[in-house]
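Recall that a protein's primary structure is simply its ordered list of amino acids. Everything else, from secondary elements to tertiary packing, is in principle encoded there. The following example makes that idea concrete.
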Amino acid sequence: MSDYSAQSPLIFNVFKPVNLTSYDVIRHFKKNLPKGYGKIGHFGTLDPFACGVLLIGINQATKINNIIHDTFTKTYIAVGKLGVKTPTGDLTVDPTEIDESKYLNEEIKRLPSNFLDTEFSKVFLGEYMQSPHSYSASKYDGKALHEWAREGVMIKKNQVKRNIALLQILKYSFPWVSFRVTVSSGTFIRSLFEDMAKHLGTYGCLKALVRESIGPSHIDHAIKKNKWPVLGDQNILKYGKRMDEVLPLPEIMVDSETARKYQNGMPFLVKNEHQNQQKIWVKRNHQIVGMGEIFDGYCKVVFNIA
């Protein structure tokens, strides 16, 4: 990636530490990236108490934000505590309810880990209806729910269909439950654990949350804080990935005339091996011209790279 400039559309797989907001990371990159990086944005908020993969796009890479969300699942590792309820769904605030029942401290305490694994998988795997958490970045009337909540207004949004592809109990040492979960975009893990605890007949909230991956972007390859950009250092660009590396799609090569017309918004005829409504990278000389979508044998513009 050393041949790419800050003007290139690039995506960085960044490790967000605990106790930083997602925008804190953006702010650091904005101050320290080489000049000319254009727009910048992250692809999915991580709460301050959480850590892990945060994708940051610069220049026109921000155009694939929503497509990343629609295309890829996200995998998390979480640690939750049974028997405790907080308004935020995590242990960053004081509890509002504590379950001191005999049922929790004798019956639930004795449940084997493999029982929880089987039971939670049976109940939650597949289609899952969930309301966004009242303390979340989900928006209502243009403002995040957590902003409303901190003003004393608790917004309850309708349930939305989500999908749980994997739910695996890693360790159960009462009252702590460690688990890995792979979910569709927009799924709140705090709300999921509250629902898991409710299924057992108690409360639950998270102590820790790690985003392990967004699609093929894994925590093992995330840029740690000691390698974040420093003002004047061009080396950060070597960690950037092209859009087609982060979002692998079929691709089609076009000549200069077709590329010119395409960048002016004109669709072009494609061979019939491409499926209808299939998104595709349009390239000239192996460089991305834009993204297209196939409709009735034609590649139509989703967006172009200036």
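The chain is about 20% helix and 35% strand. The chain has a mean pLDDT of 89.
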